[in-house]
């Protein structure tokens, strides 16, 4: 048979044939041998599959054997089209009718690669289109598809992925204690969420009303079904007024009434689903309840100190202090200008001994934690956005400031509902996600893990002296501890205290003067019920907060994360409950490195003292001297 391919300019003569390429598309016949289904696309296959039957198919002629449901057919394609259409010969002989193949029809049409249309053969002659008709059809097709794709993109971006763990929240506890949760939101600086508990109660009342209406309609539907079964098809429990109402109805009238009942039930069920989804959305946004140990208000409580203050009486001291930015420039250890050129503000280069110090700090923290029985993990730095959200890390904070970096999605991936990926702000997120949709065994608890990872924070803060240098950056290395425990206050606090002891040991060994704080409600994140920070003394920050700056933190999150990640625990009695999680920073490199540079600086020697515990990983060196200069 002969192909007459159209053109957007002039129609070709019958003698012209399109050029063929080595590109092939594989299609398969349906059970009746009349419909063809697109399977895939191959480039220069080294060897044809064994189940391909002999064929020659190209624009202008075609011959083949009669296909069966088990056969595949390979078609050479022209260079432009993405799919091919052919007409099988049902008699097993070469076809002779003229047709216009779809490769030629689609030559000037742009189709999305993810669309896989079903190509169906009919015995009618394929209609031929003039060049003008084809061009208009292609433009109309493109115009019709574009809005749908945009709608699909917006819908996919707003929906929770079906692969995400299903959160199982204790909404009943919120309904029974709305004032408790409301006041908790206010105490923790989530004032915009304070009305959510009461909104949940209002939505629940609407849901109950829908449930009552649904029961009445189902009862009415049951009576209708019994009436359709026969004149005496009633129950003595049926309301007399409904029986009397249906008594004189014809069968057609009863059927019509049943249709109305069915439609009413469908509407009620849809409304119930929306109400439940809204209650869950509001409950997900509400922060965790606060521990009794947590101070109310904005002021932390000092619990203890680590090491002595390096300058207890500043007025009597003649020691010269420098910021780590100055020290890094003096010794050629830090390059902020180069990082600003390559990446922007909030990034940095560690050079020579500073890079060695980073690795030494990591090794020191890991050795301390693993020696205490914490198992080491190397986690991914990229996680699903819904995993980060389940851990309490939202894309934006209450003030609308971006918190985490999201990896841009293509329109096609969003339309397919592919989950969004983000850069992890801490190893806590991938560690918590490691047990998502998992049932733990009570005999295995507590699970204690320690991980080193790169961390990415979008909210590095505004430029200024307080955030200058390494104190607040977008990317850094951190050693993180994470644990799953029994849902028991005593056992969880034992792990929490163990984390703080390890933090104290690590920072104390570095010779840094620190203080341990019980953080107030205003400083807690969404997931934490209790949080303790350790702040180190930074000489360059003496005019701000008396020189104190946070270097580690530890938090108890109870079942906030495990309920959102569907992590469950099977007790010895066989009951499924939710374990609690605890997380803590073993060591965050940039701030600790900055504290070492500032506290170890010797103005007369222009050198920095290396803490003794790090020297095994620094080739035994005791000091970093002025021999290095930035080039």
From TrEMBL:
Root EC class: ligase
Aminoacyl-transfer RNA synthetases class-II family profile domain residues: 371-611
Pfam families in the record: Seryl_tRNA_N (PF02403), tRNA-synt_2b (PF00587)
Annotated region (Disordered), positions in chain: 1-24
A GO term, aspect molecular function: serine-tRNA ligase activity
PROSITE patterns with a match to the protein in the record: AA_TRNA_LIGASE_II
Protein EC: 6.1.1.11
Protein name in UniProt: serine--tRNA ligase
């Amino acid at each position: 048979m002969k192909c007459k391919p159209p053109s957007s300019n002039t129609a070709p003569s019958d003698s012209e044939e399109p050029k063929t390429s080595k590109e092939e598309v594989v299609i398969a016949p349906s059970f009746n041998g009349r419909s063809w289904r697109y399977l895939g696309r191959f480039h220069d296959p080294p060897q044809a599959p064994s189940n391909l039957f002999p064929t020659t198919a190209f624009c202008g002629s075609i011959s083949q054997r009669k296909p069966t449901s088990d056969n595949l057919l390979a078609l050479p394609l022209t260079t432009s089209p993405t799919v091919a259409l052919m007409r099988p010969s049902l008699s097993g002989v070469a076809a002779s009718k003229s047709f216009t193949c779809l490769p030629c029809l689609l030559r000037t049409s742009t189709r999305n690669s993810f669309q896989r249309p079903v190509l169906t053969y009919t015995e009618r002659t394929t209609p031929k289109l003039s060049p003008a008709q084809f061009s208009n059809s292609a433009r109309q097709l493109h115009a019709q598809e574009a809005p749908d794709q945009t709608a699909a993109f917006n819908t996919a971006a707003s929906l929770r992925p079906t692969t995400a763990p299903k959160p199982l929240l204790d909404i009943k506890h919120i309904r029974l204690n709305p004032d408790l949760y409301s006041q908790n939101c206010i105490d923790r600086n989530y004032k915009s969420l304070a009305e959510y508990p009461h909104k949940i109660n209002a939505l629940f009342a609407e849901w109950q009303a829908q449930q009552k209406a649904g029961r009445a309609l189902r009862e009415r539907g049951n009576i209708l079904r019994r009436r359709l079964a026969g004149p005496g098809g009633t129950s003595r429990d049926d309301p007399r007024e409904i029986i009397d109402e249906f008594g004189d109805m014809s069968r057609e009238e009863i059927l019509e009434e049943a249709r109305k009942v069915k439609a009413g039930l469908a509407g009620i069920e849809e409304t119930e689903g929306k109400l439940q989804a809204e209650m869950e959305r509001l409950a997900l946004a509400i922060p965790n309840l606060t521990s009794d140990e947590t101070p109310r208000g904005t002021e932390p409580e000092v619990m203890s100190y680590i090491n002595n203050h390096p300058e207890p009486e500043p007025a009597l001291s003649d020691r010269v202090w420098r910021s780590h930015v100055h020290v890094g420039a003096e010794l050629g250890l830090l390059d902020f200008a180069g990082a600003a050129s390559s990446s922007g503000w909030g990034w940095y280069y560690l050079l020579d001994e500073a890079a060695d110090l980073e690795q030494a700090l990591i090794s020191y923290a890991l050795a301390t934690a693993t020696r205490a029985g914490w198992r080491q993990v190397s986690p991914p730095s990229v996680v699903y956005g819904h995993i980060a959200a389940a851990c309490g890390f939202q894309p934006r904070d209450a003030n609308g400031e971006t918190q985490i970096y999201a990896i841009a999605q293509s329109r096609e991936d969003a339309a397919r509902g592919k989950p969004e990926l983000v850069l992890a702000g801490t190893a806590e997120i991938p560690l918590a996600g490691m047990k998502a949709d998992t049932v733990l065994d009570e005999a295995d608890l507590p699970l204690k893990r320690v991980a080193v990872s790169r961390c990415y924070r979008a909210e590095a803060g505004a430029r200024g002296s307080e955030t200058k240098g390494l104190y607040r950056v977008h990317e850094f290395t951190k050693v993180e501890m994470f644990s799953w425990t029994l849902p028991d206050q005593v056992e969880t606090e034992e792990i929490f205290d163990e984390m703080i002891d390890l933090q104290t040991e690590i920072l104390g060994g570095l010779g840094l003067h620190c203080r341990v704080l019980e953080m107030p409600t205003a400083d807690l994140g969404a997931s934490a019920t209790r949080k303790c920070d350790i702040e180190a003394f930074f000489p360059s920050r003496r005019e701000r907060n008396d020189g104190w700056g946070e270097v580690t933190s530890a938090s108890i999150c109870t079942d906030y994360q495990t309920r959102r990640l569907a992590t469950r625990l099977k007790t010895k009695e066989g009951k499924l409950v939710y374990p609690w999680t605890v997380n803590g920073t073993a060591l965050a490199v940039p701030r600790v490195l900055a504290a070492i540079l500032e506290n170890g600086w010797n103005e007369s020697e222009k050198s920095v003292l290396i803490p003794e515990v790090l020297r095994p990983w620094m080739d035994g060196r005791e000091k970093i001297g002025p021999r290095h200069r930035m080039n």
